[in-house]
Structures are given as C-alpha cells and as structure tokens.
Automatic annotation (TrEMBL):
It holds the Pfam family adh_short. PANTHER family: DEHYDROGENASE/REDUCTASE SDR FAMILY MEMBER 7B, DEHYDROGENASE_REDUCTASE SDR FAMILY MEMBER 7B. Belongs to the short-chain dehydrogenases/reductases (SDR) family. Keywords: Oxidoreductase. This is SDR family NAD(P)-dependent oxidoreductase. InterPro entries: NAD(P)-bd_dom_sf, Sc_DH/Rdtase_CS, SDR_fam.
Length: 256
C-alpha cells in the first residue's frame, strides 16, 4: 500500500480504479487536491498510480472488503483524514447472446459484481464517511430504456438506481450525518470495457470527460449525474413512448 502524506485532509475512495472511468476519476480528483484512495484487484497497477494511497481487494469477496475497511479506518485516523466521498465505480458488463440459451451463470456473475458487491462496500465504507459526505453509485443510462441482450447488465444497473433512491430516503432520516447519494448514469464512455462492444455507440465521450462530469456532480451533491446530456435526454424522451412502439424501435430483428 502506498502511504504518501496528502496535502489535503479531504479523502475520496474510488473502486475500480485501475482502468476506464475509475482511473480517470483517480487522476482528476488528484489534480483537484483530494487525498485519493484508489481501490482495485491489481496491486501492480495500483502501485504505479499517481495517488496518495491504495487498497487491494476484490469487491465480490466480503472478507476482503471487510479487511479493506479496517485498513481504511486505520489510514484515515493515522493521517487525520475525512472521508468526504466514496465512489463505488467497479463493475462489469456481459451480454446474453441467445435468450433461448439463457446463461444463468453469466447473469449471476454480473448481478454479483454490479449489485451484491455494492452491498458489501456500502456496509464496509458508509460508516466511515464524514458528516456531509457524498456516496456515488455507478448506474447507467441504459436503465432509461430496455436494450437487446442487456438482461443481466441492465437489471443490475436498474437495481443500483433503485438502491440509490432508497438509500437517499433513509440517509435523509439521519440529518446529523447529512450524507448524500449520487446515482451516476453515464452514456457511452470510451473504456476498455466498451471497446469490446460490437454495436454503434453514439455520442461516446472520453473517460476524462466522464471523470470531470462525475466530479462536478458529486461536489454539487446532485442525485442523478447523467451525461452526455444530449444523449441521455434522447433516451429519456424515448422512454415515454408506448411499449409496443419501443419494441418495434429497439428489438433486434433476428435472421435465424
């Protein structure tokens, strides 16, 4: 674990920090003077990051998450830090290629990583957050509409959006802590994960642009952080269409 002394007492924890949006957030928050705690599974990559501290753990392993929480608590105390933001960004994306050969193992894998593991992280890190902190949950603009082959990914992210709304209510009932919730709903962002997609990705933005939007939204304590706005506006408008028309527009026509 890297244990450089931070100039700032404000700490932010970011999961999935070794690539894509998470890595871009690490770099952006560091440039803004935050004490960044980068989290991921690959220690060799984490060790090369320009950050103040890192924690190596797998979010799908509850014992590892618990151990990371204990290490984080010690680090915060030792360096007199306030954990003002937690961004639970780590996740995965896999598609159901043939609905008549539904891959339940794939479904379980995606739900575990994108949803169940978030529960482990909330249990571990929420109690460590400072009064007035902001919790960021990575959802997706895919939750605005159903998309072909997205049964696993879309279901996991829709659950995250609901989780965020419910958390917001319960945290609002604890006014002394004043912890806010942001649900982050990106459109297409250029990352190693989206580079694997075999379909068009209109209005795709860079991971650096995504990191800036996330930073701005978290600082403003926005509940829904969605971008790029033109793209998400189109999706939201389409979601108002009748279901039969949506199916005609969105369903992939099979030639098999």
């Amino acid at each position: 674990m890297n244990t450089q002394r931070a100039a700032s007492s404000q700490a932010v924890l970011i999961t999935g920090a070794t690539s894509g949006i998470g890595l871009a957030c690490v770099n952006y928050y560091t440039s803004q003077g935050f004490h960044v705690i980068a989290c991921g599974r690959n220690e060799s990559i984490l060790n090369q990051l320009n950050t103040h501290h890192f924690l190596t753990f797998d979010i799908t392993e509850p014992q590892q998450v618990t151990a990371a929480s204990a290490a984080l608590k010690q680090h915060l105390v030792q360096h007199d830090l306030s954990l003002v933001q937690v961004i639970l960004n780590a996740g995965t994306c896999e598609y159901i290629e043939n609905v008549f050969e539904f891959d339940s193992s794939l479904f379980s894998r995606v739900i575990t990583t994108n949803l169940i593991a978030i529960g482990y992280c909330i249990e571990a890190f929420l109690p460590l957050m400072a009064t007035g902190g902001q919790l960021g949950l990575m959802s997706s603009s895919a939750t605005y509409l159903p998309f072909p082959r997205a049964e696993a990914y879309g279901a996991s992210k829709a659950a995250i959006s609901y989780l965020g709304r419910s958390l917001r209510l319960d945290l609002a009932a604890k006014p002394k802590k004043q912890i806010g919730v942001s649900v982050i709903c990106p459109g297409f962002v250029k990352t190693p994960l989206t580079d694997k997609n075999d379909f068009a990705m209109p209005m795709r933005v860079s991971s650096e642009q995504a990191a800036q939007r996330i930073f701005e939204g978290m600082v403003k304590r926005q509940f829904e952080i969605h971008f790029p706005r033109r793209f998400t506006f189109i999706l939201k408008c389409l979601s108002w269409l009748p279901e039969k028309l949506l199916i005609k527009i969105l369903a992939e026509k099979s030639t098999k």
